Each structure stands twice: as C-alpha cells, then as structure tokens.
Amino acid sequence: MHKQGASQVPSGFVSSHDVANSLQASPRQYTLENFEIGKKLGKGKFGKVYCARDKATGYVCALKVMEKKELIHYKVEKQFRREIEIQSNLRHPNILRLYGHFHDASRVFLILEYAGQGEMFKVLRKKGRFDDVLASQYICQIAAALAYLHKKHIIHRDLKPENLLIGLDGEVKLSDFGWSVHTPTSRRNTMCGTLDYLPPEMVEAKDHDNKVDLWALGVLTYEFLVGSPPFEEPAHKATYKRISKVDLKIPGFVSVEASDLIRKLLQHKPEKRFPLEQIPEHPWIMKNRPLWPKSQAEKLH
Ligand code: AMP
After folding, report:
1. Dihedral sign, Cα of residue 133, residue 137, residue 142, residue 148
2. Ligand 1 centroid to 41 CA: how many Å?
3. Tens of pLDDT along 240-270?
4. 165 in ligand 1 pocket by Cβ < 6 Å?
5. Residue in 54, 132, 158, 213 annotated catalytic
6. Whose CA is nearest to atom 11 of ligand 1?
7. Ligand 1: distance of its center to the CA of 283 in Å?
8. Is the CB–ligand 1 distance for residue 60 below 6 Å?
C-alpha cells in the first residue's frame, strides 16, 4: 500500500481552496487507485490513518482506513454512519473537513483534511502546559468551531485534547464526531464521552443539551494552562463526585483573567455557563489577542 514521496506537503499547496474543493466537488467515485499512499500518521481505535495524495490533483489529504469487520464487531456502524453524515456537511476553518468516503470489500476509507502538525494531545503532553498566548488562541478557535456547530444544532459531546488536531499553520481542527448528535427537539440523557470532561448533568445522568460543550471547553481551558484536567482522580467514583460538586482548585500560576473564564464555564447549572459568543470579548482573550501571530488574530476577527 505504501509508496514513497506522498508524505511531503508542498508549501502553499494545502491552502489552495480550488484543489481542496475539487476533492469535494468532483462527481467521480474515488477508489484506492486514486491515491498515492505516504507515511502512516497514526492509529486510532478503529483503523489507521495515512498521508495520501490525490493523483489527479496532487492534493495532500489524510486517508483513514477502517476494517468493516471491526466496525461490525464493535457494533459502531451506526455511530460511524452518523459521524460521516455530520462531518461531511461541516465547513469551518477550525473543523476538520471530511471530503468523502469510499469502500472496498473489506475496508472503509475516509478522505480527510490533512492536519500537518498532528495531535493536540501529544503537543500538550510534550510541552507540559501552554502559556496564556497559545492557550487563549486555541480556546478562541475552539469556541468559534463550537458556536458554528451549535448554530447547526449539533453538540460535539466529546471535546478533549485527543479529538483536536493542529493544522499546518498551527490552527486547531476539531475532529472526531463519533459522539456528536443533531438536536432537533429533544434533550438527551444518554451517557457518553470521556469521564474527565463530563459535566455534572451527565455524571448525574440528567438530560443535557449543547451546554455540555461549554463545560468541556472550561475543562480544556484548565488543562491547556495547568497540564491536566481539573477533576482528575485515580478512581472514577471520586472524579464523578468532584465534578458533581464542582470541586475546582485553580493553581496560583493561572492568570486572574484565565481563572475567571474557567470559573464562568465550569458552572454547575448549564444555563449559567459563559456563552460562546462572548468568549472573543472576554478579558483573557482581549488581553492576549494582540500577542497572537498575525495570521491567527486576523482569522478570528
Ligand atoms: P483517529 O483514528 O482519528 O484517532 O486517528 C489516529 C491518529 O492518526 C491521530 O491520533 C492522529 O495522530 C492521526 N491523524 C488522524 N487524522 C489525521 C489528520 N486528518 N491529519 C493528520 N493526522 C491525523
């Protein structure tokens, strides 16, 4: 499956919207033959991800390969279909594009936008924690992506560093819509997501709505600045308890402005959580925005 030479991204290439759109707009049905496969980018629970190049256009993308057998074995076909349906309709600079999909007898392939700087999780663990300038930039971008989703009545429900990728220009790309749902009318009470990022209403198995993403954004803000999530405990039960009580201790080195945003997002009552639309005007963001790289600051203004 491997061929040499497809892993290099020619600079300026991926930013070409025409080429990107040709991947999406082309009526032709893709097969593996259409791609040169480059280096393996990573391995997830359900399959491997390779850097790939569309032979016709030269466009570099990520190809996620999953075994049908596994999707069936783990009973995730439905979740997987929903993920494809949701993600392929999203267009936002901070949401990973899904250009298309195809399959052969045994595998399903997703054609994804290539996130050149890889996983946020790895970058965070390597750095330990982010400074205010970097963290505020990321949080503002994630807030913009969430606001876009919520406007489309989609809740992500699984926001965590493992589900964030970083693009070639250092921009955040929200990915993994496996747990996300459309919320036409009803509120939901299914338990899902990862423990550390669950809000009180979910650990208490109550109904929840799109405000769960605001809570997770608060957890993420804390984790970016501190290096670990705020309610982390060795035992699940203890984590649940701390979440339910909002037992929040913010270390002294976190700035007053950042602490204020964290507290305003980590509110027990969902309706009291700080609204996404106001995040760009929050003092923490306003104070740090002038220090962001020019390209990022412009994109968000
Ligand atoms: P996943 O199965 O989506 O969790 O992906 C497994 C790993 O592959 C991730 O942790 C990333 O390191 C890498 N990866 C997945 N998607 C992409 C992408 N679009 N661009 C670059 N790397 C990716």
Report:
1. positive
2. 6
3. 999 999 999 999 999 999 999 999 999 999 9
4. yes
5. 158
6. 42
7. 33
8. no
User: Which CATH number fits the domain that encloses residue 147?
Assistant: 1.10.510.10
246: left (phi over 0), alpha (psi -120 to 50) or beta: left
Domain interval for residue 239: 118-299
Q: Are residues 200 and 282 part of one domain? A: yes
| Nearest to 112, CA basis, from 44, 160, 214 | 44
Q: Are residues 231 and 138 in the same domain?
A: yes
Residue where a domain terminates, one of 44, 77, 112: 112
Distance CA(212)–CA(197), nearest Å, equals 9
Residue nearest atom 13 of ligand 1, based on CA coordinates:
42
Q: Tell me the per-residue pLDDT of 36-71, one tens digit each, with 9 for 90 and over.
A: 999 999 998 788 999 999 999 999 999 999 999 998
Using CA positions, which residue lies closest to atom 19 of ligand 1?
114
| SS3 annotation, 37-103 | EEEEEEEECCEEEEEEEECCCCCEEEEEEEEHHHHHHCCCHHHHHHHHHHHHCCCCCCECCEEEEEE
Q: 123 CB less than 6 Å from ligand 1?
A: no
- pLDDT at res. 194: 64
pTM: 0.86
Reported as a single tens digit per residue, the pLDDT across 107-162 is: 999 999 999 999 999 999 999 999 999 999 999 999 999 999 999 999 988 899 98
247 classed as catalytic: no
Please compute the mean of the pLDDT values over residues 212-239 and round it to a whole number.
95
Task: Give the distance (Å) from ligand 1 centre to CA of residue 186.
Answer: 32
